Amino acid sequence: MDHRGLPRRLPSVPVPVDGESFPSWLSRAAADWQIAPGQAAQVLGLACHPSYSGVRPLWFGTALTQRSLQGIRAATGLDAPVIQAMQLSRYADTVLDFTGPDQPAQQEESLARLRNREWALFTSSRACPKCLASAPVWPLWWRLGMAAVCPEHRVLLVDTCRQCDARLGSGYAGHPRGLTTRRQMLDLDLCNNRRSASRRRKAGLCSRRLATHPTVPVPAELADLQQRLLDVADGGPAQVAGSEVTGAEFFAVVRFTAAVVRLVTTAEEISACSALPGAAVEAFTADLHQRQLASLGGGRSQLQASPPSAAHAAAVLALSAPVLFAEDRAACQGALAAWMDRAVALRRRPGKSDPLRPIPRPAALEPLVRAAIRPASRVAGVLASRSQSQAPFTAHHVCHLADPGDYRELIARHLPGTAEISGRRLAAMALARLAGATSWQRAAAALAMDPLKAARAANTLVQRIGDAGAFWQDIERLGARLVEHGLIDYAARRWALSGLTEVPHLVLFAVCHPLGYDVTEQRRRHAAAWIWQHFTGGDVRDAPAYAPHLWAPTGMTSVREGARRFAAWLPASVACELTAHGQALLDGATEGKRGA
After folding, report:
1. Neighbouring residues of 254: CB distance < 8 A, sequence distance ≥ 6
2. Contact (Cβ atoms closer than 8 angstroms) between residue 199 and residue 255
């Protein structure tokens, strides 16, 4: 070190190859100086992690701290742009989204967040054995998550060493960023990954020659797609749907399309893709199967994760190409429409929500994606297009829950996997729309239905309807059944019984006492709820007697269980008395209206 605390100028320095990664250049420099890579890092004055005894440079190959940049410049005489171009931060304005560390205490924490979020290999690299056979230079782009194919040799990149089973370029001593200082010099033609001791071998460095790894040839079309992607990553012009975009916007589209194709592409379709080698097909199919198992187990499907291998990245690249490199807006829109239809179909499966909701939509594709997704009015739109006469009933004649027998016979098949009470509520809302309500929200208002329950039914269950035309045909048949059963003004009944929170003690005592049953306050409320349900055809949980403020000490869970037990216990004589009492209340309300 000189008097400034910076490394002294070295007599000879290898010139970085254009596009070379920093770990590759450091290894070549160490070999040229005939020292170990860890010693080379010390000679260059790289800032290292203070918590480890080994040489572990901070943000090695990812970004440079100010101290590291000053040390390298002082030791080598290389310009700062040349040194920084060897770091992954070179792609910060296109493929990746991060900046260099500002505070040393936050460096490792920030790197961990980057590794979880960005599509890059921060502690390893993919490689082309044919390229390494000619020179031990590892390009920086091999460390990108979408690195899949060598455009020059038209082969898949290799991820792991066949001998040590570790990712290529994984480092030393079990730590990805650890650099060896014990050996004088490394053979750059070898893997050099640290191998732990086992019964068959001693601990040491992997001796597999990199150039001997087998390669998988790919079609020229796939190699061309990789080169077009790299051109944009290096700052070249980019287009989406025929419009110019920035590099960052283009790669936001790359991540979105990758997530969508992982969601909607089937194993049969990937197998039929002629542009992909068998290794890419197998990798994509394996990832698809793994995500399906995770979904069954309640795990997240990780649609936004970086491609786990070069083969998988190749499959994603080929499948995404119709949108990524569409010549115009129409071609892009057509490809998106097919994807969105499949995504919506997945959303209509029982128990499934919108799988695209957590995936950020890139600004460059937002208008096209919005136009491609089927509108929420898909089912209602069919109703609007049907030529129909005025319904022979109004919303006042519709109860909150459709008749259970009619629902099972006519409507249940349109709502697979749906709880019956939820399906009956949606059927009632559909009847209200048949009677003239112009939206699901207005249908709920016409029925005086709980808006939250109505919204859940409309937003979720409607998506499960496969054949909207057949659904409305059966709703019309359900309306005809409503007329056949005899029209009842359920709205008037709900109004008349809106204040019924408990049955008078004398009414219940007259029938319960002879049977040996006590008349408690809870039983009086359960009886009031039963009357309300019996005459209004609504959900007993919506009964005025079950208003939350009346059962605050008990809790609504025990209330629902109490309602179930009351219905199971109810003797025939008590049911008759409650029916008579309810009818008397309705008759009294009717007379009161006439008198008014």
Report:
1. 146, 229, 320, 324
2. no
